[in-house]
Amino acid sequence: MGKTVTVDYVKGQKLDVYKDKEALDNMTEEELHEAALEDPDAQPLSEEQLKHFKRVNPNLPKPEEEA
Q1: Could you tell me the pTM of the whole model?
Q2: Burial class (CB in 10 A: 0-12, 13-18, 19+), 27
Q3: Distance CA 3, CA 23 (A)
Q4: What is the tens place of the pLDDT at every residue in 20-59?
Q5: Three-state secondary structure along the chain?
């Protein structure tokens, strides 16, 4: 893999998580998933876990409306 994104944050500072957005944009879904699996603090959620989440922005399309 070898692709790491490091974020430095100071309280009150506007946060730009995507310091190397081009590198992220060039990763495939499989590469992104693999990177998440390698990070113990960013484990992907299962479909069962995701069912318990509530939508907080009603202006976004529901998943079945996307496409």
Answers
A1: 0.41
A2: middle
A3: 8
A4: 778 888 889 998 888 888 888 878 888 999 889 887 887 8
A5: CCCCCCCCCCCCCCCCCCCCHHHHHCCCHHHHHHHHHHCCCCCCCCHHHHCCCCCCCCCCCCHHHCC
Measured distance CA(18)–CA(25) in Å, rounded: 10
Cα 19 to chain center, whole Å?
A: 14
The residue written with tokens 């730009």 in the block is: 16
Token pair, residue 37, equals 């699996």
Which residue has tokens 């479909």? 47
- List the structure tokens of 45: 């959620």
Place of tokens 């318990």: 52
The tokens for 59 are: 């202006």
CB 29 within 8 A of CB 22: no
Residue in the block written with tokens 């998440």:
36
